[in-house]
Amino acid sequence: MKRLINQTPAPMLRVLLTLLPFVALVLLYMLASDARLAENPADKLLPSFAQIGDAIQRMAFEPSKRSGDYLLWEDTLSSLTRLGLGVVIAAVIGLALGLFTGALPLVAATASPLLTVVSLIPPLAILPVLFIVFGLGELSKVALIAIGITPFIARDIQRRTQEIPSEQLVKAQTLGANTSQIICRVLLPQLMPRLVDAVRLSLGAGWLFLIAAEAIAATEGLGYRIFLVRRYMAMDVILPYVAWITLLAFVIDALLAALSRRLFPWHHQGGH
Amino acid sequence: MIEARNLWKKYGDNVVLERVNLRVEEGEFITLVGTSGCGKSTFLNMLLGTEPVSSGELLLHGKPVSGEPGPDRGIVFQQYSVFPHMTVLQNVMAARGFARRNLTGALFGSARRAAREEALALLEEVGLSHAQGLYPAELSGGMRQRLAIAQALLGRPGILLLDEPFGALDPGIRADMHDLVLRLWRQYRLTVFMVTHDLKEGFYLGTRLWVFDKTRHDPQAPNAYGATITYDLPVGKIDRDTLSDIDRDLARTANETE
Questions:
Q1: From B48, B79, B157, residue closest to A170, measured CB to CB
Q2: ipTM of this predicted complex?
Q3: CB neighbours of B77 closer than 8 A, spacing ≥ 6?
Q4: Of A145, B44, B250, B252, which has the most beta carbons under 10 Å away?
């Protein structure tokens, strides 16, 4: 018998082991839901899959009685727009801050300590400030996401910039490069895949800030809907919404990973 | 062409190099050997401009060596000296882009075509034509160092600094690299400084061998005295006795510092 640390599952077994917890969770849910509904058919806490299916049909494929919109798609579009805008703004500012503080000691002397302090401010604590300054519209929600994840991206990119071997910078100088050429040709291209990594890591926080902002002030959006139907204990809507958000997060992450492999093949060869 | 007058290098109380005096003419090929921590790489870095001189003078063409790296001094490090995000061809062409006084170092039109042709010719010379589309991570260690040399040469430096360039390579490949460096040194009329930890390498490469070693030693304060050049020998006229002398000296210093 090999030691446990040396035992690896065969391909078939690996697939089975991967599926096992998902199947177990679904089964457990079905059993619990059936048991509660048998006792009280009007129970709302654990709706059956049939009830959830009805809710999905209602939210996604039938126009709302009130507004005539298809709510799920409406919510998805506005949430993704906010998240996308916030993340793109954060990525651009974070890249610029990280690059310049990482590459230029003179800039780092001023900006680096400030960045550290700013990154310690809990973004949700300043959400009221954003609502007061920017109003209850789109701007404050996008601003929350951007403010929430910019410091993380900036500090990550700063560290990545400093990790680029100094030999490369010396080499570029011996070839006659000036500062801006080194930034454009040596540093920036090598930071792009690292920026994609940083964005992937910060998307989780991005969703958090998005849903928090929508819960407090919005008229549509995935987070808004979840918090709205909570009043009626509509678990048949909340559960598929949560599953949908999870799926969106998964797909966005996979797309970014594929994009990085395609655009930056050299980064994924794991070399020098 | 290069001259050191009573050159010292200290980090606080830690003396690395002391009383270094030397004169190097254009076209010499100098091999620098010594135990680890004896200051041979520090000396190379002072020539490169990444380490400041503590006291004394280090002159290049009669003027103090510039405080930062420049295009007159090319460098090949043991590793990390090529750009991982550029293909082999782009790595060599980069030198032409950097030579232009613009913001991004990008090449267009006829300048780009000229740089491409020049780079291809140089790749042919170092034996990398077949690999021009590959990224450095796809190359073997020897190929990567060939690329680093080609890249440094396209900048047309008068002086080529090699910091243990073949330290990580297999012995067979190392011999090929020696031939390559000697050939390019003659062809481009370079002045070469090569740091190595392999004493034998210094005995048949180039024209001149420098041994860096400590002449004074205080067991209570191992850092109180620095190393200096203890042997300055013309290559090809060194006999077996001298070799064993140097070997013994270096072994003694290594023991004392441990």
A1: B48
A2: 0.89
A3: A167, A170, A171, B148, B163, B164, B165
A4: A145
> Looking up tokens 């006999």, which residue turns up?
B239
Would A216 be classed as within a structural domain?
A: yes
3-state class of B75 per DSSP?
A: strand
Q: Sign of torsion, CA B166 B169 B170 B176?
A: negative
B 34-53 residues inside an 8 A Cβ radius of A: 48, 50
pLDDT at A244: 96
* Contact assignment for B103 to A264 by CB distance below 8 Å: no
Residues B100-156 have pLDDT tens digits of 888 888 888 888 999 999 999 999 988 899 999 999 999 998 999 999 999 998 888
Domain of residue A213: give its range.
81-221
Do B98 and A175 lie within an 8 Å CB cutoff?
yes
Residues of chain B contacting residue A189, judged by C-beta atoms under 8 Å apart? 85
A105: contact with B, CB 8 A cutoff = no
What CATH number did the domain enclosing A111 receive?
1.10.3720.10
Q: Of A175, A269, A270, which has the smallest distance from its Cβ to B155's Cβ?
A: A175
**In chain B, what are the domains?**
1-72+159-258 (3.40.50.300), 79-156 (no CATH)
Cβ contact B103:B186 at 8 Å: no
Q: Please, are residues B77 and B148 in contact by the beta-carbon 8 Å criterion? A: yes
The verdict on residue A217 lying in a domain is yes
